[in-house]
Design a protein that fits this description.
The chain is of the alpha+beta class. It has a three-stranded antiparallel beta sheet with strand order 3-4-7. A hairpin with a 6-residue loop joins strand 3 and strand 4. It is elongated and about 70 Å long. The chain starts with a strand and ends in a 43-residue tail after the last helix. It comes from Kitasatospora misakiensis. InterPro entries: Cro/C1-type_HTH, CTDL_fold, Lambda_DNA-bd_dom_sf, Sulfatase_Mod_Factor_Kinase, SUMF_dom, SUMF_sf.
Length: 245
Amino acid sequence: MATVETWTGAEVRALRQAKRMSIESFAAHLGISARMVSKWEARGAGITPRPVNQAALDTSLASSDTEVHERFARLTAGSPSVLPNPGGDDSLPFPRQHQLRHPGDGRRMALVEAGVFLAGPGKEPVWLPDYYIDVFPVTNGDYSRFVAATSHRAPQHWPGGSCPDELLDHPVVFVTWDDAAAYAQWAGKTLPTSHQWEKAARGPRGHIYPWGNQPTPAKCNSRESGLASTTPVSCYHSGVSPYGV
């Protein structure tokens, strides 16, 4: 399988043709406008996409199947930018399913597909590759298995170091970043980056809330709900993000 050192419009056209996609569908796949793809292809080797789009093209090629790679190699034969595969496997460690159960802690995880999302208050476009993220916050029950297996310090709201039964399906609280990182390492995971967390929560279009742009207390446990305590993690089905988390 090949890799591309620097993408130009020529390699962009070859990848689109290898994937057998129209300009419109390829643009949507990359999270950009069809006009931009047309511009790249028209200028060929004379144009180099921006780094964020270079990364998007890298991920699109890397996630393609063998037939696409074979067609791409034939279409780019002789191009100095296309190199033999340097080795290594940066693919996801799981099958490409929209949801699965992690083999480490058995928790459900959702796929956040590669693409551009609008980040921060300025809604700046940021490219991220595929990743999985937990569907629900870590519960007291999940965390109690970690504590039992590792003798890690229990949260302060567990009387006598044991979680009350009525809180087992509530999100664990009174944990530090170090506690969370230790849990993730035990489970065979990593904590999400700030951009991964934001994309999973807001979706690709930069919504203020997971469900849109209007504050709706019925969709989450907020101060306005007046509950003044945690609630089971599965309470707010109508408040899920576009990725189902």
